[in-house]
Amino acid sequence: MTFEQIIFYLFAGVLVIAAAGMVTVRNPIYAALCLILSFFTSAALWLLLEAEFLGIVLVLVYVGAVMVLFLFVIMMLDLNLDLLKEGFARYLPVGLLVAAVVAVEMILVLQSGPFGATQPAAPAPANNTEALGEILYTDYVYPFEIAAVILVVAIIAAIVLTLRRRPDARKQDISQQVQVRREDRVRLVKMKAERSGKEA
Fold first, then answer.
1. Nearest by Cα to 84 from 130, 26, 38
2. Which domain holds residue 86?
3. I need a surface site. Which of 36, 46, 153, 199 has the fewest CB within 10 A?
């Protein structure tokens, strides 16, 4: 067994343990931390497969942005863990059934043999980022653009759904702020100086 295979099995084992811990742990913060660990080990496996761009993007996007946001939201919500513990035993049979179906599907896919994919005629470029960009913007340019439009529509829909007109909300009127005068905001009051009891 080579050193690369040892590293692969090591990261694969850590990935399986982290994924199992993410599903079975009851504390949502610990579940998010297990998910971060699974992302890191997945990125390491991508690096072993010589897909450096995908591994770096996985760490930067998911671990650096999405999971930090998840942890922030989980900690800000102050979730009631007692309710989560009550629902765990109730949905356990359904979860085990779904896990068994997914395991059977994965076993059937792994035992089906090769998919009959032919080798590419031209050798792939040495830089996988260049190869990914070339495929993405030539062969899959229309699906890529459609996915971008769908994401933009989803962002706009989320903003529209959360944008509510509140009557008690304060807002600024820039035109009124520019036209304000000193006499409208500042009032000069003249009053006699007070004397202390010793001076009197």
1. 26
2. 80-113
3. 199
